[in-house]
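Our preliminary data section would be incomplete without showing what the modeling component actually yields. Below, a chain of 167 amino acids is followed by its predicted structure, encoded as tokens that our downstream tools consume directly.
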Amino acid sequence: MKIIVAADNNWAIGNDGQLLVSIPSDLKAFQKETTGKVIVYGRKTLHTFPRQMTLPDRENIILSRNPDYEEKGADVVHSIDELLEKVSGYNSDDVFVVGGAEIYEQLLPYCNICYVTKLDREFEADAFFPNLDKDPDWELYEESDELVYFDTPYTYLTYIRKGTKIM
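Predicted structure:
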């Protein structure tokens, strides 16, 4: 599995249930990368999507502890084991974990590639992603040139789990 996340200099990813910033070109890159693929996320992340609806043209899988939770347009799983069984039928390169903080933390051990939109700012935040720069299991593989959206410089970073072979 892979992860896609946007994080600031403190690895913050959200505040009060919302993204830190919405960068149109980053949202387009997210759409291009995940369309036709499987996306895995938590129930709270669904509420950050447009009209709080599952994303079209993707296989949506929601991980929720609530055994009664259902969502139109998504498969709902209730444990990591159930999720891993569900995604075992897909090519792991086609499965993307897209949030939120708790889901990222739980699924990071099962992922080999992280695509990070690194925001060169510090935002007020209450949700964070694990700091991959301090994690000995991960290494920076690739970094884009710096881009700027209004007052927010950002780069696209690709981290790989050490020992992962990139095609």
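Helices lie at 24-34, 43-46, 80-87, 101-107. The mean pLDDT is 95. Preliminary results of this kind motivate Aim 1 of the renewal.
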